[in-house]
Amino acid sequence: MGAGFCTACGGADGPHPACEAVLSLEPPRFCAACGRRMVVQVRPDGWWSRCSRHGVTDSTDVGAGR
User: Fold this and answer.
1) Cα distances (Å, whole numbers) of residue 44 to 1, 19, 41, 59, 60
2) Matching Pfam families, A to Z (predicted)?
3) Domains in the chain, number
4) pLDDT, tens digit (0-9, with 9 covering 90-100), for 8-37
5) Which of 6, 13, 34, 51 is the most exposed place for a label (fewest CB within 10 A)?
6) What are the contacts of 56-64 at 24+ separation with CB within 8 A?
7) Containing domain of residue 21, as a range?
8) How far apart are CA 38 and CA 56, in angstroms?
9) Which residues neighbour 38 within 8 Å (Cβ) at sequence distance 6 or greater?
């Protein structure tokens, strides 16, 4: 795998070890497929992130919802 982007900082070949802690507390801010900044909405029961090219990712879809 390894050719994706970090969803915390947008850098190539992510997620990076330093970003893992951020991702455990925050929703993804960058698209894993293209590295673009995403629109993020946090709600009481989770979050969703939308990439203009790759669509919506919901916390319930990735098992991160509370």
Assistant:
1) 33, 23, 10, 11, 12
2) BsaP
3) 1
4) 888 877 777 778 777 777 888 999 899 999
5) 13
6) 57/28, 59/27, 64/27
7) 1-66
8) 9
9) 28, 29, 30, 31, 49, 50, 51
